[in-house]
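Task 17 of the worksheet. Students: predict the tertiary structure of the chain below and write it out as structure tokens. Keep your answer in the requested format; marks are given for formatting as well as content.
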Amino acid sequence: MTDFEEVPEFSKDVKKLHKKYNSIDGDLETFKKALISELPNQLSGIVRVSNLGQNVKIPIYKARYFRCKTLNKGSRSGIRIIYAYEQNEEKVTLIEAYYKGSQENEDQKRILKYFQNKSM
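Model answer:
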């Protein structure tokens, strides 16, 4: 069974998105169920985040295809979810959620804050 955790900033990200996209909570639950069914493989539209340096040993992923009912654009909604997957522990840590129109890329400082020098 896969466990899900959230860094504190993730909850704030979702709260911020909820103001504009009120279906985000349910959409996130659907995403989690889909992710569980596909781990350790990846869903389509998932890419590994690069350029984090050698001190980040745990794989960090970006979900580029996230279905948001409010946006009604299918999987190409523009919402991005950043997460870490620790296969040995069967744990997914949700790190960041954002709309790509308001932010270009993931917050690498946040990723490094939680995953730099953490081993698998």
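Marker's comment: The chain has one domain: 3-115. The helical segments are 8-20, 24-38, 108-115.
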